[in-house]
Write a structure and sequence with these properties.
Shape of chain A: elongated
Order of helices and strands of chain B: HHHHHHHHH
Helix content of chain B: over 70%
Order of helices and strands of chain A: HHHHEHHEEHEEHHEEHEH
Largest sheet of chain A: 2 strands, antiparallel
Structural class of chain B: mainly alpha
Radius of gyration of chain A: 27 Å
Number of helices of chain B: 9
CATH topology of the largest domain in chain A: Alpha-Beta Plaits
Oligomer: heterodimer
Largest interface: A-B, 20 and 23 residues
Shape of chain B: globular
Number of strands of chain B: 0
CATH class of the largest domain in chain A: Alpha Beta
Distance between the termini of chain B: 12 Å
Helix content of chain A: 25-40%
Number of helices of chain A: 11
Structural class of chain A: alpha+beta
Chain lengths: 277, 191
């Protein structure tokens, strides 16, 4: 009889003891959770992309509830989600300026030269380990091995002609590609912006010209052409201040190497007409 | 000296994964990235050390006096499951940073056979309290070593697009794990 009784009693007793200890511990060590957190979490899209700068939607919801983050940081949800979170918190929220990723290089296979043939792993991080940081003669240019494509969870980047290209429709500006690019070529830009300096080269003008036909040669013509003083030369590279830029496209017309691209063609035509008058 | 031999044995010669083949599921499951492998390894080491300690006490002071040593499997599983739950709660309250670092891996290892394996080996080898603790922690470190090596290799394989279609992914990982086990066999003369 005791053969059965002892195991049953002792193990049952152990189980009961552990159960009681756990039950007590769950009360004793209960971490108070802000009731707003699950409500905010429900508003979020749940993609866990990290675009807000937090580890995921849960982490962001906690940060918003505790006041550590603004409610309008979700790049996917944008204004509608920000408004919903605002309702939960009982505040009105300004919608954040939507952004998209932009690849600052147009040195495609025929426009930019290569230093050598690269037969290694097709991965930008790996290619960076090779002397000269990759086969491309311009050490600032896009390698085109697609580390950003792998990093993108939304299928918004393709490699076209050896250069990464962002599909604006799919891009949610989560910034995963920005982090993945070892050359720091990708940047998050305001969606409204239409004119971009599409070059990342900080080399001197002549060095750029030797390796790429569409690079910024730091001639400063765009700086002079800009009516709003939105363009400056930083480290041999023309930089547009997007808060001042009005997308007039005058800089694009002056650029001798076509390193500045304008994606607002009809307006450009109108400006030209005005200039002629 | 005995402790030193125990450490070398648990870490390399009788490595938890590569020689005893315990904890293979998590070994292959969370070895895609070095970062996550580190997290899992740390969690396993932590729980293995604690479980060795507690289960020694339960075995010596509950099972042995009552002559029900044959119930050890159930008793140890009970101990490990309750322990992980308890540790999770305590960490959440007292050390939120460590809790966040271990993340989802802590509850995951409740059912990791490496933990139960370490505890049963402690019992079979008749280790004392201190030896049990050392064996638990060092076995965990050995497990961590193996998973980090595999994660590093898998990260590189991921970037390799010349891999034949047939072995891409898990098959290649299994082959690599097998080769690692053979390599670790080389330590067998040490102790």
């Amino acid at each position: 009889m005791t053969d059965i009784l002892y195991p049953v009693l002792s193990l049952g007793g152990l189980g009961l003891l552990f159960g009681l200890v756990l039950g007590y511990a769950s009360k004793k060590f209960a971490v108070p959770v802000d009731p707003k957190v699950p409500l905010i979490r429900e508003c979020l899209p749940g993609a866990n992309c990290g675009g807000c700068g937090f580890a995921g939607c849960d982490a962001y919801a906690e940060a918003v509830a505790s006041g550590a983050a603004a409610p309008n940081c979700c790049p996917i949800g944008g204004a509608p989600v920000a408004t919903k979170i605002g309702e939960v918190l009982g505040v009105t929220v300004d919608s954040s300026d939507p952004k998209v990723a932009y690849v600052k290089c147009q040195g495609t296979c025929e426009k930019a030269k290569d230093k050598y043939e690269y037969y290694g792993l097709k991965d930008c991080q790996e290619a960076m380990n090779v002397p000269g940081t990759g086969a491309k003669a311009c050490e600032f240019g896009c390698l085109g091995y697609g580390s950003c494509v792998k990093a993108c969870a939304f299928n918004a980047i393709d490699i076209v002609d050896g250069i990464a290209k962002v599909n604006k429709e799919n891009c949610v500006a989560c910034g995963a590609c920005v982090k993945a690019c070892p050359k720091s070529i990708i940047e998050l830009v305001p969606e409204k912006q239409k004119v971009f300096v599409t070059c990342n080269s900080k080399a001197k003008g002549l060095d750029v010209k030797n390796v790429c036909s569409v690079g910024c040669i730091a001639c400063s013509l765009c700086v002079k052409a800009c009516p709003k003083e939105a363009i400056t030369m930083v480290n041999n590279l023309s930089v547009i201040d997007y808060s001042k830029c009005v997308n007039c496209g005058l800089c694009e017309q002056k650029c001798p190497t076509k390193a500045i691209l304008n994606f607002r063609q009809p307006v450009k035509a109108k400006v030209q007409v005005e200039e002629v008058k | 000296m005995k402790i030193f031999t125990l450490i070398i044995s648990a870490l390399l010669v009788q490595n938890m994964v590569l020689s005893r083949f315990l904890g293979i599921c998590a070994f292959l499951g969370v070895s895609k990235k070095i970062e996550t492998a580190k997290g899992m390894g740390a969690a396993v080491t932590f729980v293995m050390g604690l479980a060795s300690l507690i289960s020694y006490v339960i075995f010596q002071f509950v099972l042995v006096p009552l002559h029900i040593e044959y119930m050890y499997t159930i008793a140890f599983i009970l101990v490990i499951a309750a322990l992980v739950q308890f540790v999770e709660m305590v960490l959440k309250k007292t050390m939120p940073d460590l809790y966040k670092a271990l993340g989802i891996y802590l509850p995951l290892i409740t059912t990791n056979c490496a933990i139960l394996g370490a505890v049963i080996i402690n019992m079979n080898e008749k280790f004392n309290l201190f030896e049990s603790l050392v064996f638990g922690i060092v076995s965990g470190l050995g497990w961590m070593l193996a998973i980090i090596i595999l994660a590093g290799l898998r990260e590189r394989m991921e970037a390799n697009d010349k891999m034949p279609e047939a072995v891409k992914g898990l098959p290649a990982s299994l082959i690599v794990a097998g080769l690692m086990a053979i390599a670790f066999l080389g330590f067998s003369g040490l102790v």
